[in-house]
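Q: I'm building a small set of examples for a reading group on sequence design. Run inverse folding on the following structure and report the sequence directly after it, with nothing in between.
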């Protein structure tokens, strides 16, 4: 008798038992996708909780994460609150973009945003935007409660730079 050759994955199709390599791969991909969606939902809920814990006034806040993009919606009390929520979400590990779908109850002028680079200090940033390094407390206050100390900023962090009154 001798050695017989067969098509490796045909048995599952012919007899309806087992799974083909393609079926196993599809199931593994579906399971990985489900795990990723579950993780993204958990991260979104954590971000919503963080915003509430920071005392930022927003109604019906919703954060949705898809891969490295976050979409936020809800009604912020004012423009400063809206921008702080954007920063809380955007400055989180793994988030590359934030799609802001929020509305604002009390409309105000929008602030500028600045991405911190190596060597930046709040004083240096204030000098750039306001022409006076001693205006750094304005930037610090505009980024509370996300900033706990004026000296604790890091490269890649995005800060609100409000207009001076």
């Amino acid at each position: 008798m001798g050695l017989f050759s067969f098509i490796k994955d045909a048995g599952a199709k012919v007899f309806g038992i087992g799974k083909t390599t393609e079926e196993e791969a599809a199931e593994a991909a579906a399971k990985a996708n489900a795990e990723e969606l579950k993780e993204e939902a958990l991260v979104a809920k954590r971000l919503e909780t963080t915003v509430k814990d920071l005392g930022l006034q927003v109604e019906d806040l919703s954060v949705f994460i898809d891969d490295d993009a976050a979409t936020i919606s809800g009604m912020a009390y004012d423009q400063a609150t809206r921008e702080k929520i954007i920063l809380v979400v955007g400055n989180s590990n793994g988030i590359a973009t934030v799609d802001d779908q929020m509305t604002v109850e009390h409309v105000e002028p929008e602030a500028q945003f600045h991405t911190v680079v190596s060597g930046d200090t709040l004083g240096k940033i204030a000098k750039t935007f306001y022409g006076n390094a001693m205006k750094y407390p304005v930037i610090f206050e505009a980024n509370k409660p996300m900033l706990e100390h004026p000296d604790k900023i890091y490269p890649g962090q995005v800060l609100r730079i409000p207009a001076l009154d």
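The mean pLDDT is 86.
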